[in-house]
Amino acid sequence: MGIRFTISPSVMIPRAPSSTLVSAAVQYLLTKSLQKQSLRVLDLGTGSGCLLISTILKIQQQYHLQTSSPTSSISTLQSPRIEGVGIDIDPDCLKIASNNAIFHHVDHITTFIESSFSTFHTHSKLNESSFDVLLCNPPYLPPVHESITTLQFHDPVLSIYVQDPKQHYIEVIQTLQKRPELMKVGSKIIFEIGNRGWQSIVESIKIQLGSHGVIDDVLRDSWGGHRAIIITWKS
Predict the structure, then answer these.
(1) Range of the domain at 107
(2) What is the CATH number of the domain that holds 136?
(3) What is the pLDDT of residue 71?
(4) In a domain, 186, yes or no
(5) Residue 72 located in a structural domain
(6) What's the 3-state SS for the chain?
(7) Which end of the chain offers a freer environment for a tag, N or C, measured as fewer CB atoms within 10 Å?
(8) Torsion, Cα of 122, 124, 129, 130 (10° steps)
(9) Is residue 210 part of a domain?
């Protein structure tokens, strides 16, 4: 991602293909910044905080570059306020994410909460206003890959492997359906996926979404692998 992050045995090592999610979020948020002065990003399974913090930093950087250009169409607008909330079930991950936010001087606009994919909607700190973007890189590899990947990258098992690769995608959508106002109408949900079995995940998400949202696109990463699902939230 081109940004330095502190990690520990508790968090997954940030990987370049995940920058596909960040790029998609930044592209959408820059468009939204022309319409409003406040943007909110929710990151589920935040780990080291790399997706959330990278998105915030790149929005700030891109807005500065555009507003400093004499030909920019947004050169006369005030820089939008952007803030983020990162959620993780592991308190050790939250400590790492908080330290990374401090290191990158975004701790004043980020909040990190201990919760899960199925209970985050109940947390009082999410009551302030709805979100423009939801980022989520859930565990999606079946256990058959465990010995290979864990030995190669030394990642925590719970951050990568799950018995049913579709489980957490469905869980997140079900949780949002319990409290759909957490996401603004027209907001974006951006899931990371793997290149193996992605069609099945897309189909399961489509079925679970029903009338609450629509899949816009499946993005490839710079290596050509399927990497991200973009959803527009309609509820």
Answers:
(1) 16-64+79-233
(2) 3.40.50.150
(3) 52
(4) yes
(5) no
(6) CCCCCCCCCCCCCCCHHHHHHHHHHHHHHHHHHCCCCEEEEEEECCCCCHHHHHHHHHHHHHHHHHHCCCCCCCCCCCCCEEEEEEEECCHHHHHHHHHHHHHCCCHHHEEEEECCCCCHHHCHHHCCCCEEEEEECCCCECHHHHHHHHHHHCCCHHHCECCCCCHHHHHHHHHHHHCHHHEEEEEEEEEECCCCCHHHHHHHHHHHHHHHEEEEEEEECCCCCEEEEEEEECC
(7) C
(8) -20
(9) yes
Q: Is residue 70 part of a domain?
A: no
Count the domains in the chain.
Answer: 1
The larger pLDDT score, comparing residue 37 to residue 118, is at: 118
Q: Please state, as a whole number, how many other Cβ atoms lie within 10 Å of the Cβ of residue 73.
A: 9
Tokens encoding 111: 């909040």
Q: Considering the entire predicted model, what is its pTM?
A: 0.90
Residue 74 tokens, joined? 């947004």
pLDDT band at 151 (very low <50, low <70, confident <90, very high): very low
Q: Which two tokens stand for residue 1?
A: 């991602």
